[in-house]
Structure formats: C-alpha cells, structure tokens
Amino acid sequence: MGDLVLLDLGLSHFRSHRAARMALDGRPVAIWGPNGAGKTNVLEAISLLSPGRGLRRAGAEEMARRPEGLGWKITATLKSLWQVHEVETWAEPGAARQLRIDGKAATQVMLGNIARVLWLVPTMDRLWLEGAEGRRRFLDRITMSFEPGHAEQALTYEKAMRERNRLLREGLGDPSWFAALEGQMAEAGAAMTAARRRSLSRLAAAQEGAETAFPRADLALLDPEGDLPEDPESLATLWSAGRRRDMAAGRTLTGPHRADLCGVYAAKGAPADQCSTGEQKALLISLILANARALAGDFGAPPILLLDEVAAHLDAARRAALYDEICALGAQAFMTGTGVELFESLGNRAQGFVVSDVNGCSEISEGSLP
User: Fold this and answer.
1) Which of 363, 362, 339, 330 is nearest to 30 (CA)?
2) Left, alpha or beta for 214 (phi > 0: left; psi -120 to 50: alpha)?
3) Which DSSP letter does residue 300 get?
C-alpha cells in the first residue's frame, strides 16, 4: 500500500495566518493552543486540498485575512501513492478560488484523483439531532471520497432543479421545458442515489469484523416519500406526475435532495438521535474510521484525516484507543486540542505543533509531545 501524506504546508494571508509553514514527516500531527489561536484554520486550509468548499463551506472572500483583504494562498507538497505533487490553491480579491497541480491549472475533480481528505469537526456533533440537510451533506462528503465525480452529478442536479423550481413558481407550464429539465435531473439524481447507496455498502463492509474500540453504526438512506427510484426513467416519471402538486408548493417536493441518512447504534439497537452525547461522538468517529479503512483499500492509501477538537467527549482510554487505530491504519491525521496533555498517549508516534496568537496574528511553532 502506498502513502497519502502532506510533506509541506504553507499559508499566506489565510484567515488568522499572515504567513506560516509546516514541515511534515508523514506521522500524525497534534496541534494545540488556546481557543481562537487559529488551530481550526490550519485544518480548513488542508481541507481545501480536496474537492469542495472545505470544512467550513466558506466562500473565497471569507478566507482572506482581515483587515488586509489581499487574497490568500495555500501551497502544499503532497505525496500521493508513489508520486509527489505540488498543489497550490488561492483566491484574489473579488475572484473565485483557483487551483494548480504541478504548475498546471486543474479542476477539483483532478484534485480528488490525487488527494482524499476526511474530517470531523465539532459542528458535526449534532449531526443526528439537526435537520436532514446536514446528514445529506455528511453522506455526500463520504460519497465524494469514494467517487470524486459525485460532486459533478450533485451540481448538475441542483442546477436543473433550481431552474425547474423557477418555472414552478412562475407557473410556466410548457411540458417540453419541464421534460428537458426533469430528464437532466433524472440522469444526475439516479447516479447520485446509486453512489450514495454504494458508499453505505462500503461503510458497512468496512465496519464488519473490524476490531475497533468504537461502536458500529448501521446506516440507511431514507426518503420521506417512500423508496426513491434509482433508474432515470422512474425518477422522470415521478416528477412528471407530480408537477401540479409541485407547482402549488412552488418547489420540487420529491427526489434525492429530500433523502435522509438514518443511523442506529447497532449493539444497542438505539436510533442515533436517542443516544447520549458521548455515544453520538463515538458513532461519528466510528464512521470516519470506517470511511478511512474502506478508502485505504479503494485508493491504495489511507486518507488524510482532520480531527478538530477530537478529544471532546472522549475519556482518556477512548482517546488512547483512537490514536492507536489511527496509527494502525497508517493515516496522517491532523488533530487539534487546547492542551498538549490531550495527546500524551501518542508519544513519539506523532509530530507536535503549537499555535499561538501574537498581536492578532496566528503563529505556528514545533512543539514536544509528552
């Protein structure tokens, strides 16, 4: 099996970091410092080395350091399997984010072919308690990790659906317009649903028989309208038959955009939303680890993991178990916490960095683990 690791990371005018560089050796990385120092900003920068808008889903303008507003840039040296790539992504003021791989302009799908990045952030702790949109986004990130092209299918679907919704609101009833848009939605929507279900099967297989300290989560893709067809013809028929109802509502009421992810704590048979806060956190960690194990087999190397404040709601024994699993997997995990003591059980298996705030500017320096 090959490696997928960052060897070097540079930040320029990104969030709270005016200029920062981290030289990395492939081991897991522990990052500590006080709240507000800029630890999560480092993880966000790394998340932008994968397709999508990063772990905060922020726009390009939001990432520029204030008050300068000069734009921002992230540079990275990435070892992917047996090749080394130079990756740059940046945004000038008022312009969209750009990407270059090995000196050439690149698409996000091309980035997904060389880099797989998974993350767990505190806002995801409420995954099972919030609305279905957050769970769909969580599942789609997992699906994109397996199939980077899933992002393009989702964009195609959303674009066609927005146009159909506009026609519905305006009461425009030309059947040929609707049929054309519904045909586009059906092709992309069927591919989305099939990819999501393949991802759930891969997660189930990765959890089956795995020796882990974290509980197994049984997952299912549900639709409030019943079983969602996977074939384009059935989807197109569904929307064609529902035009009058959708027109009354002013939006598309059925389809992959309404699907929900259902989770169950397998050992207890308890729905995830009825589990304790600690159990919900453990279930999320279990899914991220299962995703990483499955990707290691698919991609040929374990993904890069971003675990923000991962120690929250974990006791010392479970923290140690998590670190052991990360090291056994061989993943380069970037983990943040407020104190170095949270990473004591890692010892020399990880690199350490301290992030501090100096006059409103984040600074990164190497640190020693206990």
Assistant:
1) 339
2) beta
3) S
Give the CA angle between residues 347, 43, 130 to the nearest 5°: 110
List pLDDT tens digits, range 268-299. 999 999 999 989 999 999 999 999 999 998 89
Residues 107 and 142 placed together within one structural domain of the fold: no
* CA 354-355-359 angle, 5° bins: 135
- State which of 274, 296, 328 marks the end of a domain: 274
Dmax (CA) of the chain: 69
What single-letter amino acid sits at 190?
A
Beta strands in the chain (DSSP E): 3-14, 17-23, 29-32, 72-81, 83-91, 98-101, 104-105, 117-120, 217-222, 260-265, 270-271, 304-307, 333-337, 351-358, 361-367
Segment 24-66, tens digit of pLDDT? 999 999 999 999 999 999 999 999 999 888 999 999 999 999 8
pTM metric for this prediction: 0.92
Query: Of 265, 181, 252, 188, nearest to 223 (Cα)?
Result: 252
Residue closest to 296 by CA, chosen among 193, 196, 197, 210: 210
Residues 6+ apart with CB under 8 A from 297: none
Q: Which residues contact 110 (CB under 8 A, 6 or more apart)?
A: 101
| Paired tokens of 191 | 């591919």
Q: Give the pLDDT confidence score for residue 52 in this predicted structure.
A: 86
b or e along 350-364 (b: 16 or more beta carbons within 10 Å of the residue's beta carbon)? Answer: bbbbbbeeeeeebbb
Residues spanned by the domain of 267: 130-274
Indicate whether 185 and 258 sit together in one domain: yes
| Beta strand spans in 190-298 (E) | 217-222, 260-265, 270-271
Classify residue 316 by its DSSP letter.
Answer: H
